[in-house]
């Protein structure tokens, strides 16, 4: 743009405009050059400049409008059966603070997200679904959340079986995170928020917050890794409700969609690189279990 504006300045056009000079072969003598210039009538020149300005404007408009468009791709479709699908990411500045890096050099390494349909077996899925049914049995309409604090005393059979189930699935989840993030499994601890949720089209404060762009560390700063186990099926048990990772690159927005599916597990580092949003539910229930893991031993809810 700057060369174009320079050319509009009267008198300067005849002189060394960089684009014109560069087209001259180096062996050209100065006399030849001036002779060549004199053959161009001035009207043609201003016409050329005008065309170039218009062209530059068009290119700018094209770049501007296409870059504002959001792109959408499917990370995990509901018809797919995915052994493992992984996105390696550049950690955002807030993912792990310098102090955290120093404190937990072996627990904090890369940033990524992955989806797997193979981690949970049929038996575990139906066990978790059964628990969710018991927890949410008498409130069918609105969105609900049930926090699990394995520290608390199990007062009844349901609470006890929730604790037992979480305890039984925990080792392999931790093992899986450790393997994918290339860290040691004995450095990870279950922390809060860990909860069952049922999200419907009747929103609550909690479900509203899920429908806004956020990343987990922004809500709970001790969380380093997040795990979501979906327990109901997109298009079968509910419509809407897709889990969407959103990346912003300058002005470009890119969506990576995960269709929830019973037994599907999504694991991601909790920083800004994994900003996400839950699409509004149109009808039905999206049931899931969310587990949070930390490298901070003091923050564990597991004793
Ligand atoms: C909310 O979902 C229920 C079924 O889950 C459906 O009958 C109802 O029409 C939905 N309401 C709206 C406003 O979409």
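Q: What amino acid sequence fits the structure above?
A:
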């Amino acid at each position: 743009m700057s060369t174009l504006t320079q050319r509009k300045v009267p008198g300067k056009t005849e002189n060394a405009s960089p684009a014109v000079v560069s087209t001259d072969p180096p062996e050209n003598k100065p006399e030849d050059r001036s002779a060549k210039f004199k053959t161009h009538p001035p009207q043609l020149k201003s016409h050329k400049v005008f065309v170039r300005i218009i062209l530059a404007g068009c290119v700018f408009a094209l770049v501007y409008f296409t870059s504002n468009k959001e792109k959408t791709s499917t990370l995990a479709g509901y018809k797919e059966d995915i052994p493992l699908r992984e996105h390696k990411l550049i950690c955002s500045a807030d993912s792990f603070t310098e102090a955290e890096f120093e404190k937990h050099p072996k627990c904090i390494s890369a940033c990524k997200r992955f989806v797997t349909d193979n981690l949970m077996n049929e038996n575990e899925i139906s066990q978790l679904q059964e628990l969710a049914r018991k927890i949410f049995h008498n409130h069918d309409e609105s969105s609900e959340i049930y926090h699990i604090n394995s520290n608390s005393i199990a007062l009844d059979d349901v609470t006890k079986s929730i604790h037992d189930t979480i305890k039984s699935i925990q080792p392999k989840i931790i093992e899986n995170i450790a393997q994918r993030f290339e860290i040691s499994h004995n450095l990870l601890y279950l922390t809060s928020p860990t909860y069952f949720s049922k999200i419907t089209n009747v929103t609550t404060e909690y479900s509203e917050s899920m429908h806004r762009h956020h990343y987990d560390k922004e809500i709970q700063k001790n969380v380093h890794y997040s795990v979501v186990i979906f327990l109901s099926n997109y298009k079968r048990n509910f419509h809407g409700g897709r889990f969407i990772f959103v990346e912003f690159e300058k002005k470009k927005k890119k969506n990576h969609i995960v269709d929830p599916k019973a037994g599907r597990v999504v694991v991601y580092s909790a920083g800004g690189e994994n900003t996400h949003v839950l699409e509004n539910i149109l009808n039905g229930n999206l049931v899931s279990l969310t587990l949070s893991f930390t490298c901070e031993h003091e923050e564990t809810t597991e004793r």
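Q: And what stands out in the fold?
A: The first helix runs from residue 2 to 8.
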